[in-house]
Amino acid sequence: LEISIRQVDDALAVDIVGRLDTETSDHASDELARIVESGKSKVVLNLDGLEYVSSAGLRVILKAAKVLQASHGEMKICRVSGLVKEVMDISGFNQILRIYDTETDALAAF
Amino acid sequence: MLGTVSSNDVELQLQDLVALLDVSKALSRESDLDKLLHLITGKVTEVLGADRSTLFLYDESTDELWSKIAERLGEKEIRFPIGVGIAGTVAKTRTGENITDPYGDPRFNPAFDKQTGFHSRSILCVPLVGVTGKLLGVIQVLNKSGGGTFGRKDETLLEAFASHAAVALERAKLTEIAMQKQRIDEGLKLARAIQMSMLPTSFPPFPDRQAVGITAAIKPAREVGGDFYDFDYLDQEHLYFCIGDVSGKGIPASLFMAVTKTVLKSRTTEDRSTASIITYVNEALSKDNDSSMFVTLFVGILNVTSGDLTYTNAGHNGPYVRRRDGLVERLDECHGPLVGAMPGMVYREECLSIAPGDLLILYTDGVTEAMNSKGELFSEARLFELLGAPGATSTEAVVHRTVTAVETFEQGTEQADDITLLALQFLARTTLFEEFTVRSRLSELAVVNDRVEAFGKQSELPSAVLSKLKLIFDEVMSNLVSYAYPDDTEHDIKVQLEVTGHRVVVTIADDGVPFNPLSVAPPDTATPLMEREPGGLGIHLVRNLVDEAAYERRGDRNILTLGIRLESAAPSEI
Fold it and tell me: Could you tell me if A100 lies within 8 Å of chain B, comparing CB atoms?
């Protein structure tokens, strides 16, 4: 799993590439914690390169979103397809976080 | 000629009465025939003060007298017809004789004296007649001690003695008949136990494998006939199966069956040619086969990837194939003689292509030769008709329907031979099968991912299906590690992957606490994730990601079987 960040205007785009599962969740949790605690209030997770996300991975994302929310920031998600979308739909995650088709849509919605 | 005397005859002296009572008591305690015969002759010799006594038993079937006991001669059987010699005469007339000068009596047969060097000076002989008036035998007492002859008192004593001995003998004979019957019953039970313990009787036999459905049934006759069947995966691709019928009945047949089945099975570990397997088994069985038993055999090996069936029929009833479209054909070629009769035989084999849906029905002649009360046979024709009839699409249904039909047919008659059926249905081609075991720790997920990756490459699975498989393992394994083992130690988790037809089937077996993940109520997905019951979400994901899910508690194991259809599995790939 690789997590990298890009500065887009006043927002932070986070690319998550690989598998977000039990094996990688600790690493992902640390990385996302660092990002949401960096002081940025607008964070977009770009999941285009995500092979799949398991329930352990969902927890990591949710935890980061909650930390951000507590500091009056907001997390949005974009580029969700295939198995990742399926998991988001089944878990009801799509009702908890705003999911956008493209990164542009997500950034425009802040 | 002797008069009829009862045991309370006034002429009996007290000491004789006591002796008789002793004997009577001893006789009443002894029900073993051999011991009883010894006891009677011993006591008679003692009480009458004689040199020797012999008890000849009457053999109704040959109308002869015979004896195993001739004291001081050893255990030797003597036989002679009724009417021959003094004993024969007594048996014939059922009247006692007191011979004071044997060599002067024309009925006396001196042959025994000549043979043994014994000199008969006096003979007292009385018949043993049972309460129902049946002749049981004769007691013959030789040579009154001290050189005299037997007197009136001896006659009376022996008569009284004989009536007691007759009762004891009759009872011992009845006991022996009962015991013989019991021995036969035990033999029947043993033969059946041998037969049944040799056969796989758990169905479906391979619940984790999707390629083949198998059902078998055996109804042993009262006297077991030595029918058997067997099946097993020889490797991931080859399914071996056979049916056989051993000549003869009872324990010998069941033992020969056990040997045949074992030799067959052991040969299959290195041999995939049914002709070669049977040729080998024939050599093994016909060598040193003193009992001249033999067995009819049908052996098949089905390649579950290609659907190619290789088979050899050695003198067995030709099995039937019911094709997917309902057409029934009989495999009636024979590829060699029955097995075990003659060494040096060479067997051939044949190949047949089996398609998914096709069903094979193997049977023994107990099915086709089942007889009804009119003496008619169930016959090949009836079986053929039954197999071609609509319905009964699964192996289970076919076997059940056939057994029921045979049972109905032979109602009111005793089943003469074992009735054995084996049905095998090719369900789907297996393109790949793999199994491995991992330990119950999260770091093993990396191992599982590698195995799944390799399996996917080999079977050319779409990458979305592979991701789904990895996700499934992630959820199931982490669940097991967290909740299945209260003892907090590491356990084995067995994983099977199979591509069959247009499906991938995953089977995960663990020996954790009994837990059916499919019985867990789906979580309320409207509840925020963090507030939900742990584990519930993962299971919910798995259930919704797969197309089929089944759970079974088998022994001490939880077996979770998950199926993913391949056609619809990868919308993101299109």
Answer: no
- Rounded Cα gap, residues B370 and A45, in angstroms: 75
A66 contacts B530? CB cut-off 8 A: yes
The shortest C-alpha distance from A67 to chain B (Å) reads 13
Residue of B467, B475, B540 with shortest CB distance to A83 = B467
A93 part of contact set with chain B, CB < 8 Å: yes
CB of B477 closer than 8 Å to CB of B442: yes
Q: Which two tokens stand for residue A4?
A: 């990298």
* Interface mutation vs chain B, best among A48, A83, A88, most B CBs within 10 Å: A83
C-alpha to C-alpha distance for B30 and B25, rounded to whole angstroms: 9
ipTM for this prediction: 0.89
Average pLDDT over residues B432-454: 91
Q: How would you write B108-124 as a 3-class SS string?
A: CCCHHHHHHCCCCCCEE
Nearest CA in chain A to B445: A23
Q: What is the mean pLDDT of chain B?
A: 86
Q: Residue B12 carries which side chain, given as an amino acid letter?
A: L
pLDDT confidence bin for B292, thresholds 50/70/90: confident
Cα B472 to the center of its chain, rounded Å: 45
Q: What is the pLDDT of residue B121?
A: 92
Q: Which has more pLDDT, B274 or B41? A: B274
* B445: amino acid identity, one letter: L
For residues B169 and B67, what is the distance between their CA atoms, to the nearest angstrom?
Answer: 14
- pLDDT higher for A98 or B422? B422
**pLDDT for the residue B7:** 44
Burial class of residue B488 in the structure, from the number of CB atoms within 10 Å of its CB (0-12 exposed, 13-18 middle, 19+ buried): exposed
CB contact under 8 A, B572 and A55: no
- Confidence at residue B562, expressed as pLDDT on a 0 to 100 scale: 94
CB burial class (10 A; 0-12, 13-18, 19+) of residue A63? Answer: middle
Which residues of A are less than 8 Å from B528 in CB distance?
62, 96
Dist CA A40 CA B394 (whole Å):
64
Nearest to B474 among A54, A82, A86 (CB): A54
User: Using the beta-carbon criterion (under 8 Å), do B541 and A96 form an inter-chain contact?
Assistant: no
Residue A27 touches chain B, beta carbons under 8 Å: no
Split at pLDDT 50, 70, 90, the class of A103 is very high
CB contact under 8 A, B474 and A58: no
**Identity of the amino acid at B31:** S
Give the integer Cα–Cα distance in Å for B366 and B227. Answer: 9
Strands B64-70 and B50-59: antiparallel
Is residue B535 within 8 A of residue B551, CB to CB? The reply is no
Considering only residues B566 and B297, tell me which one the structure prediction assigns the higher pLDDT: B297
Dist CA A73 CA B416 (whole Å): 86
Q: Which residue is closest to B531 within chain A, CA to CA?
A: A59
More confident residue, A3 or B430: A3
Q: CA-to-CA distance for B572 and B574, rounded, in angstroms?
A: 6
Q: A42-46 and A74-78 as β-strands: parallel, antiparallel, unpaired?
A: parallel
Read off the pTM.
0.64
Task: Identify the bridge partners of residue B446 per DSSP, sorted by sequence position.
Answer: none
What sign has the CA pseudo-torsion B30, B35, B41, B42? negative
Report how far residue B199's alpha carbon sits from residue B259's, in angstroms, rounded to the nearest whole number.
13
CB contact burial A74-85 (16+ within 10 A = b; e otherwise): bbbbbbbebbbb
